Amino acid sequence: MLALIFVAPWEYANLAGPIPRDGLQAAAMWALHGLYTSRLGVQPGHLLVTSGPYRLVRHPGYLGAILCLTGMGLALSSLIAMALSVLFVPVLLWRIGREEEMLLTEFGEEYQTYMRKTKRLIPLAY
Predict the structure, then answer these.
(1) Nearest of 66, 53, 58, 48 to residue 110 by alpha carbon
(2) In a 3-state reduction of DSSP, which class is residue 119?
(3) Are the CB atoms for 104 and 111 separated by under 8 Å?
């Protein structure tokens, strides 16, 4: 128990580890260079980003949110938190659908090509 309290924070502050320190959602934000927002929309001068975590999945920010919520539920051993994360997924899938419609309208064939090369949320699966 003491190792969890003292060693884990020390390790986080002093050693580089195999798990990215900024997390998947933060990496998605970074790759978009300030274009990551909570509201759906395309900014003036917005280009389609397919690098960073976007080379693996089309929606790494949403995947990061799902993993974070699920991880919290598991870490807390909370059925309520797990249920909320499960209930959150359909809402997220609906939003992804709206976002992809918007991106298809904005980027057309470029986004269709990107869709053929990448999965929505889970590399090699979905």
Answers:
(1) 48
(2) strand
(3) yes
